[in-house]
Design brief:
Blueprint lengths: L3 H7 L8 H18 L3 H4 L2 H4 L1 H26 L1
Length: 77
Amino acid sequence: MLSISDLRKKYLGASEATDEDMQIVRAVREYVDGEIMPRRRDLEGGWHRDEKLARDTFEKVHQGLVDIKKRDCWKIC
């Protein structure tokens, strides 16, 4: 797993990002790796094969990202 300083180096122009900013980046990255990437086939072209599966997958992925925002905003805001 990348450290916060590694993430700052990886994303150009993010050297002045706060620790809170980088925690959000890390949370989104972990969510994408753990939840979105395993379901990408249900999203890519899934609309043609199984529209209900693709829609359900999209809604689940969207809700997960909203939950990250709510959780991190609650800690920061």
